[in-house]
Structures are given as C-alpha cells and as structure tokens.
Amino acid sequence: MKPFSKQFLLFQFLLLVPLVTLSQNDDTLRIAFWNLENFFDTSVDSTRSYNEYTESGAQHWTKKRFYAKRNNLYKTVLALSEGRALGVLGVAEVENETVLASLFNATPLRRFGYRIVHYESPDRRGIDVALVYDISRLKLLSSRPIAVRDPENAKFRTRDILYVVLAASNGDTLHVFVNHWPSRYGGEAETIRLRCLAASTLRKVVDSIAGCAASPPKIIIMGDLNDTPEDKSVASVLDAKPPSFGQNDGFCLVNLFRQNDKKGFDGTLKHEYTWQVFDHIIISNTLIDSKNGLRYKKGSAQIFHAAFLFEEDKTRGGVKLHRTFVGPRYFGGYSDHLPVFIDLE
Q1: Strands 128-134 and 138-146
Q2: CA dihedral defined by 127, 128, 129, 134, rounded to 10 degrees?
Q3: Model confidence over 95-118: pLDDT tens digits?
Q4: pLDDT per position as a tens digit, 272-289
Q5: Do 89 and 83 contact (CB within 8 A), yes or no?
Q6: Contact call for residues 73 and 334 (beta carbons, < 8 A)
Q7: Which site in 130, 156, 248, 273 is 20 to 30 Å from 87, CA atoms measured?
C-alpha cells in the first residue's frame, strides 16, 4: 500500500465538508467525543511534577509544535461538525482551559461561539476532560466534577468525571457525563479494578438522577473508557446494554458502540495489529424511545475516520493513526484516537 501523499490528504480534507453537509442539518444536534492526545501548553506548571510537554521537557514541546497541533485539531473538529456548530463536544487529555480557549476562541472555530466547561482534576500528569457546547441551542444549567476514589489506596489519583446539565431550546434537559477512565498501563488484568471503580462511581450517580427525577431523564455518557464495550467495566458494572431500539423495559443505558458494524470503521484506536473501540457514547433508552423532544437518530452513531487522520502502517500493514508523538518521537499528527459522534433529532 502506497503512503498517503500530502496532496491527497489535503484534497480529502477540502472535499470532506461539502460532501457530507446533508447529514447534519438544522433539525439535528450532533454530540461528539474526542481524545485529543496530550494537548498541553508550553508553560511549566509549578504545581505539577510532570512537565514533559514544555520546551525544556523530554517532549521538547515548542510553541511551533503547539500551534501545529492546535491547527490539526481545529481542522478535524470543523470536518467533524460539517461546517456547523457541534451541539456538544466532550474532550479528553487537555491540560487546562487555556489550551481549550486557544483552540475554540483563536481559530476559525470562534465563529461558532462555543462555551467551555472545565475543572482541574487530580491526575498526576495534569490532563483533564472538558466539554464545549453550542450556546445558540443549549444553555448551561449546572456542572461539577465527580471524583473517582479507591478505598484501598488513599493516594490513588485519576481524572474526574465531568457532569454537565444542559437545557435544549425545545425544553429538554440533557445530563451529560464526560469520562477518561484509568489506563491499562501496567497491564489490562492488573488495572481492570480501577476502571470498574470509575464505572461504579458513574453508575451510582446515574441511578441517583434516575431515582430522583420526576420523569425519566435523558442521559448521555461519553468518553475514552480504556475498555471495549464488551469488557466488565462497561458491560457489567456500568451495565451498558447493546442497542435494542424500542425494546427495553424500564430505564437502562444503551451503548451505541457495542456493536461496531456499520459504525464506519473497525475501531477508535489501534493496538499492534488490532483496532479496538475504547471511545464510547452511551445513552439512556429515554433518548431512543422518546416520543417527545430530542431523540437518538437511528443509525447515526459513527466513528469519524477522515483519510487525513491516518498514515500507512509500514510495520503491521494497513493504516494507523497519524499521531502527534509515538513515545519521544515527534510526528506532528492529530491524535492516537478517532472521534465518535451521534445525532439527536
């Protein structure tokens, strides 16, 4: 397989928006998530021991590299949104609100008037989750971070879960959770307990909302869960069920990416030879069975896979993601994850 040329990738990007503008229209609200892969600023953070993404750090993170990364990100978000504002975009691996403001307020994305919701989390590396939303169609009602704690280890630190409540212009209330669960670093089996902790923490909050609401709530869970839809943390602890439109009894959560056929691509990241789905959008069945207000547009769950996000995988065959870094080596790409999205109508 021949490598993608720069001219080919640019051609694909320029064609992408006009080719797909029919799929997102004024009657839809696109909900998306993307792990941005270590989107740091170049400044030294004196409150953190981890400062590898600085000019003097191990990654030699210069302003030139930061702006190249930012430009790659904004072009991808613009293509993902098909030239319109996304309703909601959840992101992971952002250092602070400064980098988000640079991305959404100092690039062509500023014309959409996005607003940012972000809290600093206790993660050792200083990477957080955040959410941006379209103020012309959504209003912020409340937000808060939810800590994930380990009862067996008081020193355990990971990303908070971000909980945001939004009011849609039609009167609907959306409860949105943005997640980045503990990684598999150290081994999948050795770390599954930590992801189950995150899943259990989230499930308790979801059950509390459902139990207290006057009417069944509309819930959206998104994030890099570092597990597949079939893994214990997602399928059993969070209890996110496979899609079964209109067939669920009582309140439940449905993982729209549990069956990844017809999702556009084989996975959201590549591990050696295998593509896996680590990035999820999970919704309550109230968004599937809804007779009034916002509801899930059947078949809209997709893995965004524009050609410019890839490069040839000369070692293992096929393609791989065009990343910013692989270890200490700088490649100047986009991310080590693909975005995922759904549409509400």
Answers
A1: unpaired
A2: -100
A3: 999 999 999 999 999 999 999 999
A4: 999 999 999 999 999 998
A5: no
A6: yes
A7: 248
